[in-house]
Amino acid sequence: MQINTRKIIGICILSLLFMQGDAFSGLKANDPAPSGRIVKLPIPDHEIPCDMAFWHESFTLVKMTYDKDENQIVFILKANADYKGDQGFECIKFYDEDDVDMIHKHNVTLNPPARDVKPGESTRARMDIPDDEILKKTKRAAAFSSR
To answer: For residue range 11-43, what is the model confidence (pLDDT) as tens digits?
Structure first.
């Protein structure tokens, strides 16, 4: 019996990718956020997965909460050792079933601003939650550079 090494390696890589996404499927509002790339946004009555890969390169996601009074998601982010400053962290896009972005503006504010954060320090990012009509159409979200 001949073993195809390429197929085995491919299957292993795909398995690891699927496991990374599934590991965070149980994230609930006010839970500490994992350091992984895919998280569920803690928006009441909405199950929206968010790809945080863009932020993950520069920050560790420490905590994620829902601020009912301000209608925002609050992220506590810690700058990684290789953090290089402001790279445009002001945008999380919301995509519909056709993979079209429904948010065409900056919807994230960092305090202190990313340019003032040094490696190892933390910042608070506040994302304005879109209106309910957009949330109902959203199939996925993703952090992107606003630059």
So the answer is: 444 343 333 433 333 333 334 444 458 899 999
**Burial class (CB within 10 angstroms; exposed 0-12, middle 13-18, buried 19+) of 75:** buried
Q: CA dihedral defined by 125, 126, 128, 129, rounded to 10 degrees?
A: 90
Helix (H, G, I), strand (E, B) or coil at 45: coil
DSSP bridge partners of 123: 77
pTM (2 d.p.)? 0.71
Residues with Cβ < 8 Å from 65, sequence gap 6 or more? 29, 30, 42, 73, 74
Stronger pLDDT, 84 or 16, i.e. the higher one: 84
Cβ(117)–Cβ(123) under 8 Å?
A: yes
φ and ψ of 28, to 5 deg: -120, 165
User: Which DSSP helix (H) or strand (E) runs through 137?
Assistant: helix 132-137
CA 8 to chain centre: 30
